[in-house]
Task: inverse folding
């Protein structure tokens, strides 16, 4: 069975968009708990850090994550089809 690498790229990119919107919403609404959770996820002390969430930054991050996720999805499909 072959995978359609282009459809997989769109699925990865679309998933990244959904996750980015949810994550950004949580950071906007619950910045303290999200910073605490991020510190634990990164094994870091995030006590001296803070979030910078702007509308421009939201869209730049959205596009970057979608593009990189799409490229990753396409590569997964390409590698899978060539194994």
Result:
């Amino acid at each position: 069975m072959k995978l359609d690498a282009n459809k997989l790229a769109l699925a990865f990119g679309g998933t990244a968009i959904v996750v980015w919107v949810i994550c950004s919403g949580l950071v906007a609404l619950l910045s303290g708990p999200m910073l605490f959770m991020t510190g634990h996820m990164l094994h870091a002390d995030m006590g001296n850090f803070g979030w910078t969430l702007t509308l421009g930054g939201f869209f730049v991050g959205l596009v970057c994550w979608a593009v990189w996720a799409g490229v990753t999805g396409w590569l997964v499909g390409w590698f899978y089809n060539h194994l």
